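Pipeline run #58 for the internal structure catalog. This entry was flagged by the ingest filter as a single-chain record with no existing model, so it goes straight to prediction. Upstream metadata was stripped on purpose; only the residue string is passed forward. Reviewer on rotation: M.T. Logging verbosity set to normal.
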Amino acid sequence: AADPRRLKSMVMALGTDPAWSAKVIEQHAGEDWVAAVWPLLPEGMPIDLPDLEPIWAAADEADLPIMYHAFTIETPYFPGYRDVWDNPAMGRCAGQTWGGQRFISFMLMSGMLDRYPRLRVGTLESGHGWLPHWLVRLTRQIDYVRGSVPATLKHTPLEYVQMGRVFCSIDFSEGAALTKGAIDLIGDHVFMFASDYPHPETIFPDHADTVIAWRRELGEAATQKLMWENATRFLRLMSTPWSGRG
């Protein structure tokens, strides 16, 4: 980037070669533009596969979070993807959220956050209103279906969220009321502003101002966390646009 203080990106970690991916993370960890790690897994590879441990270890050592960006037309295909009667709106509604739900579930059930105490996980463009419901339901199912998680797992999904280890970018279309409800249920330290720019779901150049106006419903403190503070805690930012200014 011409100015890495302003434009950040992620290291893409290939699940097909975890050792090489770990070396790439280590090689670039000290560079200003690196803010996260995005694991790219082939279809059928579980994200809690032990072979992937070098990636998590390298990210933890570099204080880089693990992020997931949702898709609809690429794997992971959501449950029932053949049952939407060829309607793309229904497919996108289910697919975008499912990828985030699966990612968060296995990151929290695997014990990974116990093994790597600095690691943070977050979903991008997966929606956000579903998160409180999913965490509550997942917590119950882990207790109900005994033996589905490692016996050494130290915390429930809700507890990992309360510890500040889980983040989620917002979907503007879900609105202020649903965002406030989610914040009221799991806290104001989880959600991060996102605009989808330059893709069609943005309302550029008014997107940021429109969400800032939600402060009437969210409150000043929660809005400040949503628009800036939570993202700075999730991402590893070695600099910002204001770095070096007097």
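catalog note: Residues 88-109 form the longest helix (22 residues).
catalog note: The chain has one domain: 9-234.
status: ready for reviewer M.T.
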